[in-house]
Design a protein that fits this description.
This protein has nine helices and 13 strands. Strands 1, 2, 3, 4, 5, 6, 7, 8, 9, 10, 11, 12 and 13 form a 13-stranded mixed beta sheet that branches. Strand 10, helix 7 and strand 11 form a beta-alpha-beta unit. The radius of gyration is 20 Å and the shape is globular.
Length: about 350
């Protein structure tokens, strides 16, 4: 078991297990409060990107479904005629320095897997950079009318018009403690200041998954769709893999949810969980040269250059319940953008 999975096991378990870390949590909490107060009181200034910015982020460490929601929102805005850019930090990539524009052909080892994933999903403009404000400005200079920031809820220097917090229905806020004693990057009360809460449900939380986060929370189901071949792009129903041994690979923040979804459709899988943003190269998958492999789309973008005929990734479908919640969320985002096209509201 990796260090990452051990920590997640502690953070999403009983709070007493991390009691020894509570003093460090208190110090981390002081830094978080001081930083937010500095922006609230004007000691630190936020900077505009030059176009409306929508931040899709989370309060917790570990997979929440943030990137699928950010990708869904960008696609919805594109369908309404807007030129949309997706901006990311570029985790897992080695790029440093000035903002980098990412395309389908960019090496994920340079830009990070999530950035290349957005490009493959149809984003017109994708930029990465450790300075998200500079990356957002570069996107606007390239023609973006709206910027969707995948992650960055805690990057307060970048002014934003709308904030969406994404929470995993099963994991919730974990043990309720801040780092390093728990998975929270900010206190849970931060949810009161965001504009929308999206609770992602992979089918294991029951009907009340979103309700426990208050009336503003909406539910988004994340379900496996078709399997797509990495070599020729052909598509197959997952049910067609029943009755054969399948290797499943997931280098994401919540790999168990992916494996559980595959088993739920009747597949017999040999599961291999990798660290989030794990390096995947030809040598690391040499054992699977002639195997049938189902991987996440985020992992697939790292394997396209050496893909084998038996390798597939699984589409992830996003569906809001009720469907009207999706239309309402997009309408709120656009209304916020029109009210304040540049310059964000007060820091919550």
């Amino acid at each position: 078991m990796t260090v990452e999975r051990r920590l997640l096991g502690l953070w999403y378990g009983p709070a007493w297990r991390t009691a020894a870390l509570w003093p460090l949590e208190a110090l981390y909490g002081l830094v978080v409060r001081w930083r937010r107060a500095a922006y609230q009181n004007g000691f630190l200034e936020r900077e505009d990107a030059g176009a409306p910015v929508v931040v899709v982020g989370n309060l917790t460490v570990g997979g929440t479904g943030k990137t699928p929601i950010a990708s869904w929102l960008a696609a919805e805005l594109r369908s309404r005629g807007y030129v949309v850019a997706v901006v990311l930090r570029g985790y897992g990539g080695r790029h440093t320095g000035a903002p980098l524009q990412v395309t389908r052909d960019t090496d994920p080892a340079i830009a990070g897997d999530e950035a290349v994933l957005h490009a493959h999903r149809g984003a017109e403009l994708v930029f990465v950079g450790s300075d998200r404000t500079a990356a957002a400005r570069a996107a606007v200079a390239a023609g973006a009318q709206i910027v969707v920031c995948d992650d960055g809820l805690q990057h307060l220097r970048l002014a934003r018009q709308y904030e969406i917090a994404v929470i995993d229905a099963e994991r919730g806020l974990g043990n309720g403690h801040l780092l390093p004693a728990g998975p929270l990057r900010e206190p849970g009360r931060r949810l009161a200041t965001v504009d929308a809460i999206v609770v992602t449900d992979r089918g294991s939380s029951g009907e009340s998954g979103a309700a426990r986060f208050g009336p503003r929370a909406v539910r988004a189901r994340l379900t496996p769709g078709m399997a797509v071949n990495l070599v020729d792009g052909s598509r197959r129903e997952l049910a067609e893999f029943r009755g054969q041994r399948v290797h499943a690979i997931a280098g994401v923040g919540h790999p168990d949810a992916y494996f559980r979804a595959l088993r739920a459709v009747g597949l017999d899988i040999d599961a291999q969980a990798l660290p989030d943003h794990a390096v995947i190269d030809r040598a690391s998958l040499d054992w699977a040269r002639d195997a049938t492999v189902l991987m996440t789309e985020k992992d697939a973008v790292k394997c396209l250059r050496f893909a084998r005929p038996g390798w597939w990734y699984v589409d992830l479908d996003v569906a809001f319940e009720p469907p009207s919640a999706a239309e309402e969320l997009v309408a709120q985002v656009l209304a916020a953008a029109r009210r304040n096209p540049v310059g964000g509201g007060p820091v919550g």
